[in-house]
Here is the input.
Amino acid sequence: MKPAEISALLRLEAALDLRQRAAWAGMLLYVVSAVYVCYLAVKGGLGVATWNALFWIILLFAAFNALARSFQREDAGRQLYLYTLVDPSSVVLARVLYNALTMVVLGLVSLLIYSLLMGSEVLREADLLQFVLAVIVGATGFATVLTLISAIAARAGNGIGLMAILGFPLVLPLLLLVMRVSKLALDGVAWSVTGTYFGGLVLLDVITVTLAWILFPYLWRD
Amino acid sequence: MELRHWWWKFLAIALLLFASITALRTPLTPALVHVSPDRIAPGTSVIEVLGYNTDFQAGSTVVYLENADQRVCPSSTEVTDATHVQATFDVPTGLKEHLTTVGVDRLRYEGALFTEGLGQGIEGGACGPNEASSTVADAPFAFPNRSILYESIRNLHFHVPMWFTMIVLMAISMVQSIRVLGSNALEQDRTAELAAQVGLVFCGLGLVTGAFWARATWGAFWTNDVKLNGAAVTGLIYLAYFVLRGTVQDAHKRARLAAIYNIFAFVLLVMFLFVVPRLNAVDSLHPGNGGNSGFSDLDLDNRLRMIFYPAVLGWVLLGVWMLNLRVRAARIAEPLDP
Here is the structure.
């Protein structure tokens, strides 16, 4: 793990994404379409609990869609090339960072589109700072859990289907916690109550990153 | 085939026999389980009390009402049989508290009667708990008798050990997976897979015993509860683990991928089972969660523990024994390449 390697790999990822702008456009269109389907399916206002649940379900599916690319787009040749150049733990840390960044941007954009289409009355009572923080921590959590799963699924040579099967049960602890804390934020509950939840979420993020960092080198070997 | 190698199998059998027989045969302590009607007002009231495992006898059984340490004695008592007694009271005006306790000999039903016509208190009657009475059969060894739980308390010795055994087997599976990453040996990979399979069997048994217990106590086979969701997620994780194994053809690659998933999943599972419920505990029905007491509070004289710990050890040993048999059978059926 070297900071120089990580920053080089981050720049590589960014350059690849800039070259293939269709990928980002695809992710955004996925979110917009999902929100629009919900908008058409749900007529009339939603309660706070349902509004919150629907938002996280959309973001969860968007995360699976976005992070499946992470290791799929790499062919065996380039993997071997990277393997000779850098440390595997640098690769996984760079991927986790880049995916977390992607997911945070995607989460905030989703929130914007979602509150535009589905109505933002729910946000009037809410503690917005806490809600946005929940989106950021939750999106980061999705990225940290799913990066390693994406790598395993890509290695198993089976695409997004396997990733969903492997990923869903593992995302659940995070999903339940983040849905609870964002619901509390929507109800405008004080920091003293939500603090423990944020602490638990950050702990979960740190544990999954550490595990990915330890386990990825074994996955990379062939 | 020496005895010193299989002593633990005899221990498992002995513990399971002891725990299962005592868990099923031990009687419950006598208790009052039902009082009707559920409210009293000043005037004449006939109170019917239903006992469980009691031995009420005409002539010696004493029934009384108690409200703020003041007792009301019955004008007449009629014992129908060993578990039914009926008493007529002239309820006075001026009882202090909203809830009146019904007592029969040394048994009490706390706050059984909603009380009307409150006041500053009354002159207490002279009747009271009959400590010396033999009308309540006193078993030398009995389980606590609690409302809602009743006879289902025996399930403690079957339901809970299943989860202990499952966690032990999944932990064995994870340790084997760590060894796979170190050595890339297929032998350990197979043990990891078989341990997860046997663990999943115990997960299923835990779910079934839990579902029947939930039906008896909560009224439904399944509720949306953190503990139950944890159990369901455990099942999903290990089914996904088997799907992953089924997808990869190359044995060494399968061993490594499955090991990585297994380690990652086990750590997250431990978080889900033991950390998230602590944070999300506000709405759980399950004992030991959400402000509900565990069984340690019911069991002040350690009678449940004397059977519970042997039961846990017995079931864990049985699980390990099952794994041992599966591994040996697999070695014979499909020898790995040297």
In short: Chain B has six helices and nine strands.
